[in-house]
């Protein structure tokens, strides 16, 4: 296994070495070819110059002697080639000894080997007639002087130096680029390992300008927050359930013990009190059971066409006594001349409104007010239930639909199990409807339900 940094560096480096080597080979071949071309051109020019020189000599002397053009010998010897002068009948006038130039070290052929002695013959013309021949011989097809060889070497050295310089730059860049990837990914992976070990508070703040890594980072952070939240809920759930069960059981046990010990009289009033606790206990178990059914997806829905305005007014009627007891004023407003028919499970939907209305009553002080509004627009039928109750704090608001979640204020003072709104949400989700809550502590709450028109 490689780290992402190592792997990226190796890939970048391998690609760069390949690119640099290919470029170097290409540049080297091109320069060598051009250089050979240049040397061959030079040699051809030299040959032309020699022929021209002998033509001038003949023009001046009109005949060949052993001294004709012998000044060229020195230059030929210095430049490592041999000249032989022949007359028009190809009879030797004078010649240089090829052995004199054989062992001269500072001359090399293009391919670096010393070769076979070869000669090329060129006619010398005067007034359109061939008057003689000059033969130029040398030990390789193209001759390179020490300067030429040095020039070629320095070009090759330059190419090699540029290869090493490019590789050095590539190594530095690849380390920098791979760091840009590896550091945030390592950070995110460390956080995910911590999350998997149960440390749900860990999160990463690593800076990155890579879109995918930024998304990964924020989703890992969100995952951590959600796990943390779920963990809190789980812990709270266990403590809430044990609290809810322990309270009525303790009351029952204490009272029964007091009756057995003769401290409390066994009379109807005492028994009614104990029965209330048993009923409360039963209610809690019923709620938990209902919740279990929704969450296990075993609940069945019996849809039929229902007039929402009628369903709501029947729920309001059911609450008349509870409202009167707390002297709460209920205003039921329906935007008229609209059709509020909808295909739903009437019993389940009634449960939704009962839960919301009972919360509105439960969390309102005596003399409060509750509004139920029913309206319809192009896309939705909208029901809102608003109260002037104690309100929900900003801290609690995002969690009120969670299982067994109870706001801090209501926890201690007001009876409840934290299941009502979870059931509301589950039923509405089954009907493809949405619910949202807005609230301000001390001012009241408003719950808005939207049913899609075509449901
Ligand atoms: P319960 O009412 O049994 O506590 P719910 O699931 O119905 O459980 O409600 C969850 C929490 O939401 C409540 O404990 C309370 O803090 C808050 N809540 C719900 N409805 C209202 C309301 N109308 N006014 C104030 N708080 C509310």
Describe this structure in words.
The protein has 3 domains: 4-165, Beta-Lactamase (2-Layer Sandwich), CATH 3.30.450; 198-297, Helix Hairpins, CATH 1.10.287; 300-452, Heat Shock Protein 90 (2-Layer Sandwich). The radius of gyration is 52 Å and the shape is rod-shaped. Strands 8-10-11-13-12 form a 5-stranded mixed sheet, covered by helices on one side. Strands 2-1-5-4 form a 4-stranded antiparallel sheet, covered by helices on one side. A two-stranded antiparallel ribbon has the order 3-6. A hairpin with a 2-residue loop joins strand 4 (118-126) and strand 5 (129-138). By secondary structure, it is an alpha+beta fold. The model has no long low-confidence stretch (mean pLDDT 87). It is built from 11 helices and 13 strands. Adenosine-5'-diphosphate is lined by residues 355, 359-360, 363, 387, 389-392, 396, 400, 405-407, 410, 416-422, 445. It is found in: Cell membrane. Its main location: membrane. The chain crosses the membrane at residues 12-31, 159-177. InterPro entries: HAMP_dom, HATPase_C_sf, HATPase_dom, His_kinase_dom, HisK_dim/P_dom, HisK_dim/P_sf, HssS/ArlS-like, Sig_transdc_His_kin-like_C. Its EC number is 2.7.13.3.
């Amino acid at each position: 296994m490689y780290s992402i940094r190592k792997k990226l560096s190796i890939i970048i480096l391998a690609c760069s070495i390949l690119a640099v080597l290919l470029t170097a080979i290409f540049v080297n071949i091109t320069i060598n070819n051009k250089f050979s071309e240049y040397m061959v051109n030079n040699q051809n020019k030299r040959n032309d110059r020699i022929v021209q020189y002998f033509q001038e000599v003949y023009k001046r002397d009109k005949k060949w002697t052993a001294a004709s053009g012998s000044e060229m010998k020195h230059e030929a010897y210095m430049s490592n080639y041999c000249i032989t002068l022949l007359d028009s009948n190809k009879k030797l006038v004078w010649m240089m000894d090829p052995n004199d130039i054989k062992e001269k070290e500072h001359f090399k052929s293009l391919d670096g080997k010393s070769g076979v002695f070869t000669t090329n013959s060129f006619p010398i013309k005067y007034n359109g007639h061939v008057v003689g021949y000059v033969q130029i011989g040398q030990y390789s097809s193209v001759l390179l002087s020490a300067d030429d060889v040095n020039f070629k070497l320095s070009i090759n050295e330059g190419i090699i130096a540029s290869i090493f310089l490019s590789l050095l730059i590539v190594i530095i860049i690849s380390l920098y680029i791979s760091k840009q990837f590896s550091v945030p990914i390592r950070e995110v992976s460390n956080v995910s390992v911590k999350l998997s070990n149960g440390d749900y508070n860990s999160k990463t703040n690593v800076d990155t300008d890579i879109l995918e890594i930024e998304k990964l980072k924020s989703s890992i952070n969100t995952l951590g927050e959600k796990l943390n939240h779920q963990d809190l809920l789980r812990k709270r759930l266990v403590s809430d359930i044990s609290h809810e069960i322990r309270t009525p059981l303790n009351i029952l046990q204490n009272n029964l013990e007091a009756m057995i010990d003769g401290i409390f009289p066994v009379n109807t009033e005492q028994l009614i009190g104990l029965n209330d606790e048993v009923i409360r206990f039963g209610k809690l178990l019923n709620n938990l059971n209902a919740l279990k059914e929704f969450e296990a997806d075993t609940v069945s829905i019996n849809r039929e066409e229902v007039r929402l305005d009628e369903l709501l007014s029947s729920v309001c009627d059911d609450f008349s006594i509870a409202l009167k007891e707390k002297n709460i004023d209920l205003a039921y407003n329906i935007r008229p001349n609209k059709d509020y028919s909808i295909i739903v499970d009437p019993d389940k939907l009634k449960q939704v409104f009962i839960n919301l209305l009972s919360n509105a009553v439960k969390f309102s002080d005596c003399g409060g007010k509750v509004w139920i509004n029913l309206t319809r627009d192009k896309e939705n039928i909208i029901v809102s239930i608003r109260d002037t109750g104690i309100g929900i704090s900003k801290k609690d608001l995002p969690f009120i639909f969670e299982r067994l979640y109870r706001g801090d204020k209501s926890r201690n003072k007001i009876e409840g199990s934290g299941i009502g709104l979870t059931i509301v949400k589950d039923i509405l989700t089954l009907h493809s409807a949405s619910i949202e809550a807005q609230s301000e502590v001390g001012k009241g709450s408003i719950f808005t339900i939207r049913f899609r028109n075509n449901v």
